[in-house]
Amino acid sequence: MSVAVALVVETVRMSCPYVACALAAVVTERAGVINVALEGALVVSGLATAVGALLSGSALVGLVAGVAAGAALCAGHGVAVVRGRADAIVSSIAWNLIAFALARYVLRVLWGTASSSPRVAGFAAPASPPLATLTSPARLATALAAGAVAWMFARTRFGLRADAAGEAPEAARAQGVDVARVQLVAATVAGALAALGGAHLVLDQHRFEVGMSGGRGFLALAAVLVGRHRVGPTALAAVGLAGLDAAQIALPAAVKLPPELVLAVPYVAALVIVAVAARRQRA
Amino acid sequence: MTLVTRHARPVIAAALVLTLFNLLVFAAGEAPWRALVTGLEGSLGTAYGLGQVLYKATSLAIAGAAFQVAYRAGLFNVGIEGQIALAALAAGVVGARLGWAPAWIAVPVAGGAAVGVAAGWAALAGWLRVRFGAHEVITTILQNRLADALLPLALAHGLGETGVRTRDVAASAAIPRLSVLSHALAGSAASFAVLLALVTPWLIDRWERRAKVGREVGLVGLGPEACRAAGVPVSSRLLVALTLSGAVAGLTACGAVLGYKGHYELGMTTGVGFAGIAVGLLGRGTPLGLLAAALLVGALQQTGLVLNATVPKEATDVLFGAVILAVATTGRREVTR
């Protein structure tokens, strides 16, 4: 396979967690609930996917368990912020802490190791490798979710209410919208969306590891800034981040660079992106 | 909110945290009450355990003070974790090259290197904030990840003895252990760096009350618009707050590298920054509150380590997260920002 094809295939493969988290951030932030615990949602959903799949022997059960766990974590965040009036950043920090600690705790209680789960079978691939990359269930679900989220904001009453709750909660309340409820639902949906990314990581790499989310839940926030909370541009920016990831895998083989230096590239890029996007927004 | 629910909240929160503790211990196959007694005996019941709690509390109190400096200005320094790690590397690298210097030069120089590096790293986020309006939460999180990638790079290419650690610091750059005071503390990691934990929060508090710049930092946190109208240089004050926050975070490295390990190794400060954020929040903006929170969290962590054989120590971190949530949801709003 040529480098170019490998790059494209890897980009598609890596894009799932980025796009999932970016969509999640768009939904929750547009509804007015800031959430920087999407990294934590990736971790618990990955954990639940592995536990579900290994205990039941079915990848589908794993996927469902993962989505439920991600939704639960972000619902918890939503309750703390919307009902408990906690600061969104403080609550996010707490949920990230809980997610990482819980993952290690469960790994040690179930399998006696804090690093990685036993092998997870994943879905049986219906096609040969390059094509299978495009047809994995978690990846398809993420692509569908992108369409659904775009449709939700453009066409549905809930999308309109979520935007209103985020933009002008007082006005929305005056119009009879139950702002707290809308925000709780949006926060929970966001968790389920991000969880698609966590489930994908586990089913794709056939194991759960605590560090496997690798900051993607944080990097996705840069994509949201670039896409200015619009679904299409944000998803595209997320795919761009995945391209950087793919380049990390494809490039060191081609050019001789220390691998640690290549690891730093996405974060430097994201810092620049955040600065540029912020300046554009301010202007 | 009615009077009843307002007073019921802390009780409900405490009950939830306690239930969670029982669940976590029980799920690991241990009896909750026995775990509690064993854990408390091991952390607060022996001189060695107390020394360990003191060592942890030292780092936590300083890291918490670092968080509070930025928080006062309305800024979230989520990057303390990475700032501490880079500072610890700097303390190790510089400390190892000070064999020629007497202690009164070596300790301040090694500590100063740590403080300077961390301050510079935090200032980057501050600059991105005031120059471009990039939110410090996102930039400091990204900088944490960047530091994670840069540390092994630096160790592997010239700064490390091996790929995972620096050379030992010079004997003159080491901060003496508290065990020189009493043999009961032998082997415990607590050092005279504990004095830093006592002095730093108090000095910052003084600065915020008495100094012109310090007061303005607090005012900017209360209302940047009003400050701008009144002629306070808001951008400059934000930059000062975040840089100072990083500098204080850098002090944390002194206890770990100069007071305990004697070198920097990858991962040795992991978790201190995030725990420090929690301590800063729990401390409620007063030096005494900060110290109390640091001792509480230090004791919780040491209890977790004592129980680690039967109950995974990560259980205490889960509990810890729950405590942060409980405090964040029951706290009075006007204090939070």
How is the secondary structure organized here?
The complex is a heterodimer of chains A (283) and B (337).
Chain A: H1 3-30, H2 38-56, H3 59-83, H4 88-111, H5 129-132, H6 137-155, H7 157-167, H8 169-174, H9 179-205, H10 216-226, H11 231-254, H12 259-282
Helix pairs in contact in A: 1-6, 1-9, 1-10, 1-11, 2-3, 2-4, 2-9, 3-4, 3-9, 6-7, 6-9, 7-9, 10-11, 10-12, 11-12
Chain B: H1 3-27, H2 32-44, H3 47-72, H4 80-95, H5 103-132, H6 136-159, H7 194-210, H8 212-222, H9 224-229, H10 234-261, H11 272-282, H12 287-307, H13 314-330, H14 333-336
Helix pairs in contact in B: 1-13, 2-3, 2-12, 3-7, 3-10, 3-11, 3-12, 4-5, 4-6, 4-10, 4-11, 5-6, 5-10, 7-8, 7-12, 8-10, 11-12, 12-13
Report on the architecture of this protein.
The complex is a heterodimer of chains A (283) and B (337). Chain A has helices at residues 3-30, 38-56, 59-83, 88-111, 129-132, 137-155, 157-167, 169-174, 179-205, 216-226, 231-254, 259-282. By secondary structure, chain A is mainly α. In chain A, helix 1 packs across helix 10 (216-226), helix 1 (3-30) runs antiparallel to helix 11 and helix 2 packs parallel to helix 4. Chain A starts with a helix and ends with a helix. With 337 residues, chain B is mainly alpha-helical. Chain B has one domain: ABC transporter involved in vitamin B12 uptake, BtuC (Orthogonal Bundle), CATH 1.10.3470. The longest helix of chain B is centred in the middle third of the chain and has 30 residues, at 103-132. The radius of gyration of chain B is 20 Å and the shape is globular. Mean pLDDT of chain B is 87; it is low at 333-337. At the A-B interface, helix 4, helix 10 and helix 12 of A face helix 5, helix 6, helix 11 and helix 13 of B.
